[in-house]
Each structure stands twice: as structure tokens, then as C-alpha cells.
Amino acid sequence: MTTAAKAFVGPLTFQALSGRPVHDDLWHCEGGGMDHIALSRGVDALIVAPASADFIGKLTYGLADDLLSTLCLARDCPLLVAPAMNRQMWDKPATRRNLEQLRADGVFILGPDSGEQACGEVGEGRMLEPEEIAWRVESLLRPKPLAGRRVLVTAGPTLEPLDPVRALINRSSGRMGYAIAAAARDAGARVTLVSGPVALAAPGDVRTLAVETAAQMLAAVESEVSGCDIFISVAAVADYRCVGTSAQKLKRSDAGLRLELEPNPDILAGIAARPDAPFCVGFAAESEDLLANAEAKRRRKKLPLLVANDASAIGGGSSRLHLLDDAGVHSLPAADKTVSAGWVIEHLARLFDAGRGG
Predict the structure, then answer these.
(1) Domain containing 340: what range?
(2) Which of 56, 204, 72, 215 is nearest to 140 (CA)?
(3) Active-site residue (options: 29, 77, 119, 280)
(4) N or C end of the chain: which has fewer CB within 10 A?
(5) Which helix (H) or strand (E) holds 60?
(6) How far is the C-alpha of 240 from the C-alpha of 169, rounded, in Å?
(7) CA geometry: angle at 351 spanning 335 and 214, to 5°?
(8) Which tens digit of pLDDT belongs to each residue from 292-317?
């Protein structure tokens, strides 16, 4: 614990709650060793959570004036940092520069999240939930089956304008696509995420391109797909768009309104049909005959893997997925989308190695 940490919670409280010893003295030596050296030996990773703006600055410049900062500098294991600070502190250029330098130095940045903060304000800078940190650490320590691979992911809905203020959109939250992008990153891949309009923070260390319409998403995918090993189409792309979008706001009328719609391009089918197509993975949300309709879609688009889920799960935080490939149906248990995404990437990696990457 740092001196600042002890101003919030005493070491004895942590010791009583955890049943573990609490270290806070740079000069304390136990068993003839030096804590700032010995504590990081023989461990898989060192995690600083929460990491204040001040401590992130110390790490950036290699300062070591207390036990924790000295321990981080003397480590021989991976270092993970979970930032936690006021939203305005998080937004400052100095904080962002420090984090970029830490990433360049090989430090893994976990979060932050957006939400209510201890100061009473709301915004980005809130520490990730402990469960999420534990999952990210576990993912980091796993084998990297996609190391060296380039992965392109689409996520979220598309928005098709009717006039300057109205649009057709669906209920996709983008959570599954963002979780897939993060899971592919954790599996060692270099990930590019093409995202429709969502209220989510971009996954760390993932290059993210924001789009709105299906046409914009198609253009972004086509510009990025060259050289990609894997394309994962998670986005809920609108099947139709309005013909002749009005340049002015459509006025309300008691006579009703008739819209003419035309099909949007099928992004996944187009990429999968390329002679140099990457390994393509699709997602299907169905409201009836889930497995039959999903398998028909997989065969029609000639996909090695399709992930199916009930349409009623769209927008929620959890899902129950079914993985369809040439070997049949592999049903996953209901789980948080972050966990489900990890299972999907594990299955995908095995198929990729067996078919093209081994």
C-alpha cells in the first residue's frame, strides 16, 4: 500500500478482510530478503489497482520512492495497471501521454470504465470492476493462439437516415462485438474494430474506426480487410436503407407516411466471396428456428464458423451462444458476453489453426 492508499483504508483492515499480509514499508526486510525485490519474484503478474494519476506518472518516469513504485521497477514479470481517477484528470493530455508511454514500455492498461465516481461526478475514469480485472488478467496469462494474426471485427448497429433528424436503427448495443475485439486482442492478435454508433468505450490497444451507415461500414471494411487473417462480422447491419433520404425534416401529417426501402449490401457475404478471403466468422440473431436458420445462413455464405444467438438477447449483458461449423453445433452455457467472447475466440483459433493457420 502507498501512503495515499492508507489515508483511505488502514493496512489492518485489508489484512483482516483478506487474511493476507499487507506490505507498505520500503525498508522492511523479511527472512533476510528485500521486499521490493523479493515480492515480485516467482509471481505471474503484478497488478496495480486502483492506479492513480500520480502513480501512473511515477511509473512513466521510473520514479521509485516507496515500496510499490520500487517493486514495479524491480519486477521481472508483466505489469498491469487499472487507472482510477476523476474524469477531468483522465482527460488531461499529460495523463494520456503517460499512458501511451507505459503501453510503449510493455505495460498493460486495464480500462478505465465510465460511470459514477467517488467524487460524485460521472464520466470516464472509474476503475474497472474487480471481476473484469480478474478476467483480463486471466486472459493475459493464457496462451496466445492468435499471436501475429491480424483480425478485423465489426460491431454495433448501423444507422440509416430518413431525414436530417430521423433514422432507422436496431437494438444492438455493440457489447458482443466489443467483447470479441477485446478477446481477440487478449489472444495476441492485432485488432481493428469497425463500430457503428454505440455508447461504449473503445477497447484498449484496439484500433477503432467509427461509422454510422451500412455503406460507411462496408467502405471501412473494404479498406482494412487486405492483409487480415480473420474477419469477424458481429455488427447488426441494417438489411435496408431508405430510398431518397429527405434533405429536410419530414413534417408530421395525419395522412401517414410511406417509406420506400432498398437492400443494403451484405458485407460479410461480399468479403467471404473474395478469392483471397480471410477466415470469415458470422453472427446470426434469430427470433425463430434458431439453429436451422443459422445453419442455412452459414451454408449460404460459405462460412467456416457462425455464431448464433436468440434475438431476444440483443442489447443485454449476457448471452447463450451456439457455434456452428462443419463438425456440427457446439452450444455454450449462458454467460456474460465478455466470457462468451473468450470462448468464441478459443473455438475460432482452433478452427483457424486446423484449416489455415497451422
Answers:
(1) 150-246+255-357
(2) 204
(3) 119
(4) C
(5) helix 53-60
(6) 10
(7) 70
(8) 999 999 999 999 999 999 877 666 66
